[in-house]
Amino acid sequence: MNEDSPPAPIIHLVDDDEALRSALSRLLKAAGHEVRAYASAGDFLMTRVGPLHGCLLLDVRMPGGPSGIELHQALVQQGETLPVIFLTGHGDIPMSVQAVKNGAFDFLTKPVQREDLLKAVGAALDHGTSLWKSESRKRELARRMSSLTPTEREVFRRVTAGQPNKMIAADLGCAERTVKAHRSQVMRKMGAASLPELVGIAAEVV
């Protein structure tokens, strides 16, 4: 796998209704998706390891443990960006609408129609891939920034703010050729082939 590519997406299905869980799992697998099913929010949390890529199909009401709403709130508080699609009964629609306002991706009413399910899941997976790439880019830029020395960080800040080498040298109390050397190192470490590209990177790391 290319390190710039996200891992294969997995659909995590959390529902206490065993028959529905089995039916939805079969449907999603037949459509070519990888599925992992859980009988409760607790089961999902116990097996969750590291950042997740894919989406979460989550029942709103699950007796005997955390509800889907509570699980979603916990994931949001932890900074988890996995798109969440709620599975809801008609009586839970207002609750699900509020959950979407609080960051859930979508909600589907039971009984779930095949076309509606596959359309929502496809959209959630596309959204998840976009989020993964964005987060991956942020992590990579943070790694590059951490490789800069304090002086290189200062040169990076001043160069991308439009200051010429001569002014930077005067402000830092060093020779202009030293600034040029630092600037070259900054360009290399940040992976920028030109000044406009470096300025663009600076806008991303602000």
Task: List key phrases describing it.
206 residues, Rossmann fold, Arc Repressor Mutant, subunit A, 2 domains, elongated
- Give the name of the CATH superfamily of the largest domain: Response regulator
Work out the helix count: 9
How many structural domains? 2
For the secondary structure, the number of strands is 5
**How does the overall form come out from the CA principal axes?**
elongated
Proportion in helices: 55-70%
Task: Briefly say what this structure is.
57% of the residues lie in helices and 12% in strands. The protein is α/β, with parallel strands linked by helices. The longest helix has 33 residues, at 114-146.
Please explain how this structure is put together.
With 206 residues, the chain is of the alpha/beta class. It is 57% helix and 12% strand. The chain has a 5-stranded parallel sheet, sandwiched between helices. Strand 1, helix 1 and strand 2 form a beta-alpha-beta unit. Helix 6 (150-160) crosses helix 8 (176-190). It is elongated and about 75 Å long.
